[in-house]
Amino acid sequence: MSASPPNGHSVARNGASSTSGRALILSPVLRQDAGKGRSPEARLAEAVGLAAAISLEVVHAAIVRLSRYRPATLIGGGAVETYRDLIEDSHIELAVIDAVVSPVQQRNLEQEWKCKVIDRTGLILEIFGERARTREGQLQVELAALTYQRSRLVRSWTHLERQRGGFGFIGGPGESQLEIDRRLIGVRIIRIKRDLEDVRRTRGLHRKARQRVPYPVVALVGYTNAGKSTLFNRLTQADVFAKDVLFATLDPTMRAVRLPSGREIILSDTVGFISDLPTDLIAAFRATLEEVLEADIILHVRDISHPDTALQQQDVEGVLRDLGIGEHVDRGLIQVLNKLDQATPELRQQIAEQAARDPLLVPISALTGEGCDDLLRLIDDSIGRRQTMIDVQLAHGDGGTIAWLYDHGEVVSRHDDDDYSYLSVRLSAPDLSRFEQMQRRKQQSPQP
Predict the structure, then answer these.
(1) Fold match between domain 213-384 and domain 387-444
(2) For domain 213-384, which architecture applies?
(3) What is the pLDDT of residue 122?
């Protein structure tokens, strides 16, 4: 099966020579895996989408059906010859294999096809290299890229000389120009890990500062291209990069949002998840996902119009469990069923019936704004249910405690007489514990 997606445009890579970016996309599928998981056509379409994310011109895309994987070339000899002719005739410079390709297989295919060959991991890293903007994101991407590079046989050390994004898996200097020195990679990995620890400490300080302000953190998670950044922009009136490409967001972005009750939350946009993401990549991006680990509420944004939305949901929840926050999944994530604007009338009716049965399902269109007010109300209600209402009687002279309650809780009502202030306050569990400790310390302190 072949596909002919719309052509892209030429791209310049790493400040090196310009390349047309003409690419071949191959998605190997074992025949015995037919009917398991995603359809081969969906996997191929996703691979084409990944290539489009960095403006590659996809000349030809095809599913390669195999009875088994070949140790030397992954795909069979007949397919190698067929695509060798296609690569030569179509002047293709890059072959993307949507699978895990060993260093030996990569070298052999490059020798056969006389063009660069990268696997799924290499392609995702190339996208990450272009998308990361913050210092933390860039360090995490480079760490993942170096770990990946270290497993290759003889590749090119190109990313250190780049003038902009990308890592040179696609375009940089050739084998004969500059070979990787494993010792240099090891030294650089150690340095990056040290720098990342500094970044994490800084983020930890920022997080502690936020904890002094009673703003719950609400994190957006979801499969890549589900519409998280579009929703983030809709709710925050921000201008985060949002485009219909895979991995449009690679750095966490945080903004304050006021809910209908007047409460404020911190909304966090995060990197999109994807199936078969290598373990090294998940580990490298763990710090980026720290905002998810610390979140009070997680919104799982789903592209309800996508044919594989249920499988994408499983992938996202699987990564969350891998990150050690399976309790959020077990307790029930708020499922934001996005892209209603692309749903058929039949699908919209089906979604409406599901939402009527499940209060944690919210159908929306982040693009048009449909359903977003309902989503804010649900977030508001969820936060309210997580708080405890207490009644407090405080002397007027205890202004510090009264101010603390205003800063850390939601004062629902207050009235004063000549001696006391009477407040009804909603507090989160951690703040309620802190308040009770404060009161105990005051009672134990000697009275003047």
Answers:
(1) no
(2) 3-Layer(aba) Sandwich (3.40)
(3) 87
**Residue 114: other Cβ atoms inside 10 A:** 11
> 387-444 — its CATH code?
3.30.70
Task: Give the pLDDT confidence score for residue 243 in this predicted structure.
Answer: 55
Q: At the topology level of CATH, where does 2-120 sit? A: Rossmann fold (3.40.50)
Most confident of 16-30, 167-181, 380-394: 380-394
Coil, strand or helix at 25: strand
Query: What are the tens digits of pLDDT across the range 359-371?
Result: 999 999 999 999 9
The C-alpha atoms of residue 310 and residue 32 are separated, in whole angstroms, by: 22
Domain ranges of the chain: 2-120, 130-197, 213-384, 387-444
**Residue pLDDT, tens place only, 266-281:** 898 877 777 776 666 6
Spatial distance between the Cα atoms of 448 and 446, rounded to a whole number of angstroms: 6
> Shortest CA distance to 325 belongs to which of 286, 351, 356, 367?
286
What tokens appear for 49 in the block? 């989408």
Give 337's strand partners: 302, 363
Whole-angstrom distance, CA of residue 29 vs CA of residue 292 = 34
